[in-house]
Task: inverse folding
C-alpha cells in the first residue's frame, strides 16, 4: 500500500539493538529500579482497575510532580506524556506545523527533533554548534528573529554539555513570542544549578522537558512530563491522544516521584563513574573523551565504525555509533553503566585501539 507522498521515504525508527552482554547504547540507567521501590511499583499496578480507562490528564501524577519540582509550580504547569518523545511530537504538532512556528535545531543533537518536524510539516532551521559543541548563541538569536520553537538540549545528546540558564532567560525575554524548549532528559546527572526549571514560572515562553526514562530507570514504562506555562500545557492537551499514558505508567511514575530519594545513590555513582571514565578514556592514546554532565560520554576514536563493530562482535558490548552523523565523524557515544560494565568497555576500547 503506497504511503502518502510526503512520508514515502520514511523508514521505521531503528534503535540498533542487538543482543549483547553489555548494553551501553541507549543511555538507560543500567542500575535499574531499587528492589524495594520496584516492589511498591508492582503493588501499585496490581491495585489498578485494568478494565477502566486511565485518567486522561494524569492529574494525581501532575499534582505529585508539581509539588516535587517546587518553584511554585502547580498542576496547570505540568503535562504528562507517553515518554518525552510524545511531548516532542505534540509540541511540534501544536505550535509548529506548516502554519505555526519553525523549529530551530542546534545540531548535532537528538535526531528525533528533526524527524518529528518532518512528520508534523514543521520547517526546520539547523543552527550548527561550535567546535566545542556549545550552542552558537549569536546564530540562534539571529535565527529567532521571526520567532520559532528553539530546542536547547541540556545536557545535549550526544555531546553531554549544558546550556547556560542565564542566557536562556535572556533569550526568552528578548523573544517573548517564541517558545524555548529546554530538553532536560538527562538533567538529574548534572549539578542542580544547571536546570532551567526555575525559569518556567518566571518566563511564560520557557518549557522544560523531563523524563522518567533515564535517572529514574523507567525507559520501558514510557513516562515523561513537561513543565511550562498553562497556555503551553493547554495547547498540548488539545492535540494529544487522550489515553496515551496508561494506568500502569501513571501508577509506576507516581511511586518514582514519592521515592525519588531512593534513586539518588545510583545517580551519584553514575556521576562519579562518568568523571572517572572520562579521565580513563582520555588517557587511551588517540582517544578524546568530551566533558559530560549526562550519563553518557562522547568519545572520538580513529576508525570509530570499525571500533564499534569490534566492540559488538568480539567483546559483546553495544555502544552507539555516531560516526556517520555530520559533525560527529569518528565519534561513539558510551552510556555510563555499573562499575563492572564501565571497566569492561574501557578495557575493550584500550585493547582495540592498541591492536
Ligand atoms: N530527549 C532526549 C535528549 C533524549 O535523549 C531522549 C531519549 N533518548 C528523550 C528526550 C526522550 O526520552 P523518553 O521518550 O524515553 O522519555
Result:
Amino acid at each position: 500500500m503506497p504511503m502518502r507522498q510526503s512520508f514515502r521515504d520514511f523508514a521505521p525508527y531503528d534503535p540498533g539493538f542487538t543482543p549483547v552482554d553489555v548494553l551501553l547504547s541507549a543511555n538507560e540507567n543500567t542500575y535499574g529500579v531499587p528492589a524495594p521501590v520496584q516492589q511498591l511499583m508492582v503493588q501499585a499496578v496490581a491495585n489498578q482497575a485494568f478494565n477502566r480507562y486511565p485518567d486522561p490528564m494524569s492529574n494525581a501524577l501532575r499534582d505529585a510532580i508539581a509539588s516535587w519540582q517546587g518553584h511554585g509550580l502547580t498542576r496547570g504547569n505540568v503535562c504528562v506524556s507517553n515518554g518525552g518523545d510524545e511531548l516532542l511530537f505534540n509540541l511540534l504538532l501544536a505550535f509548529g506545523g506548516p502554519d505555526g512556528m519553525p523549529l530551530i535545531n542546534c545540531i548535532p543533537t537528538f535526531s528525533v527533533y528533526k524527524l518529528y518536524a518532518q512528520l508534523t510539516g514543521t520547517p526546520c532551521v539547523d543552527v550548527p554548534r561550535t567546535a566545542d559543541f556549545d550552542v552558537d548563541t549569536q546564530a540562534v538569536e539571529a535565527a529567532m528573529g521571526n520567532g520559532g520553537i528553539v530546542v536547547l538540549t541540556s545536557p545535549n545528546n550526544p555531546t553531554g554539555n549544558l546550556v547556560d540558564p542565564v542566557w536562556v532567560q535572556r533569550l526568552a525575554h528578548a523573544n517573548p513570542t517564541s517558545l524555548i524548549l529546554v530538553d532536560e532528559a538527562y538533567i538529574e546527572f548534572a549539578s542542580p544549578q544547571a536546570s532551567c526549571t526555575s525559569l518556567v514560572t518566571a518566563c511564560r515562553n520557557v518549557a522544560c522537558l523531563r523524563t522518567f526514562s533515564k535517572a529514574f530507570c523507567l525507559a520501558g514504562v514510557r513516562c515523561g512530563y513537561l513543565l511550562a506555562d498553562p497556555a503551553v500545557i493547554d495547547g498540548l492537551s488539545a492535540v494529544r491522544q487522550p489515553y496515551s499514558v496508561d494506568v500502569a505508567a501513571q501508577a509506576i511514575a507516581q511511586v518514582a516521584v514519592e521515592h525519588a530519594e531512593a534513586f539518588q545513590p545510583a545517580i551519584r555513582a553514575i556521576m562519579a563513574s562518568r568523571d572517572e571514565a572520562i579521565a580513563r578514556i582520555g588517557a587511551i592514546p588517540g582517544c578524546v573523551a568530551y566533558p559530560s554532565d549526562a550519563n553518557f560520554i562522547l568519545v572520538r576514536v580513529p576508525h570509530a565504525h570499525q571500533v564499534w563493530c569490534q566492540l559488538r562482535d568480539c567483546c559483546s558490548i553495544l555502544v552507539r555509533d555516531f560516526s556517520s552523523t555530520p559533525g560527529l565523524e569518528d565519534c561513539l557515544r558510551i552510556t555510563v553503566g555499573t562499575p563492572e560494565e564501565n571497566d569492561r568497555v574501557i578495557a575493550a576500547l584500550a585493547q582495540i585501539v592498541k591492536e
The mean pLDDT is 97.
